[in-house]
Write a structure and sequence with these properties.
The complex is a heterodimer of chains A (239) and B (289). Chain A is of the alpha/beta class. Chain A has 8 helices and 10 strands. Chain A has one domain: P-loop containing nucleotide triphosphate hydrolases (Rossmann fold), CATH 3.40.50. In chain A, the strands form 2 sheets. Chain A has a 6-stranded mixed sheet, with helices on both faces. A 4-stranded antiparallel sheet of chain A has the order 2-1-4-5, with helices on one face. Chain B has one domain. Chain B has a two-stranded antiparallel sheet. Chain B is globular, with a radius of gyration of 19 Å. In chain B, a hairpin with a 2-residue loop joins strand 1 and strand 2. By secondary structure, chain B is mostly helical. The chains are: A alpha/beta (239), B mainly alpha (289). The interface between A and B is medium-sized, with 29 and 20 residues.
Chain lengths: 239, 289
């Protein structure tokens, strides 16, 4: 579905990705892990077009989308949850969902909202509340709901559990799984630091260190007993 | 009574301006210092069309809108590549260039001599001459402008602008194109500035470039800073406050020799105190950065 080939990317003069290649195929749940500064978020930004790579290609469903602007990539079926604040706190929950679905209007917009609220049913009672007043878990749910409003084929999630309690994080993951079932999302790629929470969910794990893929495995469950070892790799990656 | 009617007319014209600018500054978070350019283009375009081409008021206003929108598009495409301080400087440059053109293109604009004798508006065959009639005309155009702008404020378009203002990358990640959204907002706001410019020109029956200077752009921005940007009530509060405060200061009974300067100082001091006490404006929800 999504393939990135030989991606080299910079922030200013600092190179973050060094010929990184990754593939997320249909039906996969890819967990992208690595130390801080490994280039995980940068990689997602390159895939979504928020950062133009210096070198390399991004393919989506076999089509080269490297030069497409972000909005066209999003409208073509790539859903992206950023690591930072993803909601507009000054407007209501309902307006945030409308914003997520933009430019959808009328019946289609209502249907999409209904679908999203079936997944995040606890938001139903808070539609007219200001999004800024929601709890951390509710905010993240709303942020994911906004991404789902466009019915993405592929979901790219950058640390969906960031700042959440273990219980709230686990709830978010369950909601993501439900969304995948209900909306027919074909593949998910998630960046996550919380390995205990994410490893059981993943079907593939990709370890990124220093802007390079150091390990790809189709059996992420075997790492559950090796979380400390992984953290060691991450530590060395920081050095 | 005429004095009060005059103030109400000026408040009406400035409400069209401030609510239009609110789209760019309050919703888009772009601090524009060239709004008086579109105000001036509207005033000059409709005036020249009426005086030199001989077309009537309404078609002249509509053509003025088209001309201002085209200018806004041409200016917006390069200017909106910038953000923050750079955008402010670019709009400052645009303001200075357009003012210089208006001032020096004497063959077209009569430069510093201005254009006198602008015809009174004729609407549906009826010439608007009295202040009452003019107030009704301004009121009708203001109501129409606010209806359109309030729809835009509440529409997904307005929400998308707010999202881009609060976190451009996050909004872009949701599929909003900053370039397109900001350009639409820039052009739409120019349409309302142009409308206000045409109304102003036909009301005062004389225009010259000094009505559309950087000072005017700063004044319009100050309306939003004082009243509050990014909502429905802020521009109203700012417009009323900024237009009526200097008028209220006239009644302080200051000696004639110092009155104008003291009034200016009190006016300035009030703005400084306001910014300390209410940095988001009197009725604002978003603090312009």
């Amino acid at each position: 579905m999504i393939e990135a080939k030989d991606i080299a990317a910079f922030y200013g003069k600092k190179q973050i990705l060094f010929g990184t290649s990754l593939r997320v195929s249909e039906g996969e749940r890819v967990l992208l892990v690595g130390p801080n500064g490994a280039g995980k978020s940068t990689f997602l930004k390159v895939v979504t077009g928020l950062l133009q790579p210096y070198n390399g290609q991004v393919l989506f469903n076999g089509q080269n989308i490297t030069s497409l602007p972000t909005e066209k990539r999003i409208h073509s079926g790539i859903g992206y949850l950023l690591q930072s604040e993803n909601i507009v706190p000054g407007i209501t929950v309902d307006e945030n969902l409308t914003l997520g679905g933009y430019p959808l209007t009328g019946k289609i917009l209502s249907e999409r909202k209904h679908e999203v609220l079936e997944i995040f049913d606890f938001l139903k009672d808070k539609l007219s509340a200001r999004a800024g007043y929601l709890s951390g878990g509710e905010r993240q749910a709303l942020a994911i709901g906004m991404v789902l409003m466009k019915h993405p084929q592929v979901l790219l999630l950058d640390e969906p559990s960031a700042g959440l309690s273990p219980k709230a994080a686990s709830q978010i993951l369950k909601h993501i799984e439900r969304a995948q079932e209900l909306m027919g999302i074909k593949a998910i790629c998630m960046v996550e630091h919380n390995l205990k929470f994410a490893l059981p969910w993943a079907s593939q794990i990709i370890i990124l260190v220093g802007g390079r893929v150091v390990k790809t495995s189709d059996t992420p469950n075997m790492y559950i007993t090796k979380i400390e070892e992984l953290e060691k790799i991450f530590f060395h990656g920081n050095e | 009574m005429n004095y009060i009617l005059h103030l109400l007319i000026m408040i009406g014209i400035y409400l069209v301006l401030s609510y239009g600018l609110n789209l760019v500054v309050g919703f888009g978070g772009l601090l524009s210092l060239c709004y008086a350019v579109f105000y001036g283009i509207g005033a000059y375009a409709s005036t020249l069309l009426m005086v030199k081409v001989g077309i009537s008021f309404i078609p002249a206003v509509l053509l003025g809108i088209v001309i201002a929108a085209i200018f806004a598009f041409l200016i917006g495409v390069p200017a909106l590549r910038f953000r923050g301080d750079s955008f402010v400087l670019v709009t400052l440059g645009i303001q200075m260039i357009v003012f210089t053109i208006l001032y020096n293109w004497v063959d077209l604009t009569r430069g510093p001599y201005g254009i006198p004798g602008i015809p009174r508006p004729v609407v549906a065959g009826y010439e608007i001459t009295s202040l009452y009639e003019y107030l009704i005309l301004v009121g009708v155009i203001l109501l129409f402008s606010l209806s359109v702008l309030f729809i835009l404020y509440n529409a997904p378009f307005g929400l998308a602008l707010k999202a881009l203002r609060d976190d451009e990358m996050a909004a872009e990640g949701l599929g909003k194109s900053p370039v397109h959204m900001f350009l639409y907002a820039f052009v739409i706001s120019a349409v309302f500035a142009s409308t206000a410019g045409s109304l102003y020109a036909a009301y005062v029956t004389y225009i010259d470039p000094t009505s559309f200077t950087l000072d005017e752009s700063i004044f319009l921005l100050a309306i939003l800073l004082v009243g509050g940007a990014g909502n429905r009530i802020g521009p109203f509060v700012g417009t009323v406050f900024m237009i009526l405060l200097p008028e209220a200061l006239r009644f302080l009974g200051l000696p004639d020799t110092v009155a104008p300067n003291v009034r200016q100082m009190i006016y300035g001091l009030t703005l400084i105190v306001l910014m300390f006490l209410r940095p988001q404006g009197l009725a604002g929800e978003y603090r312009v950065k």
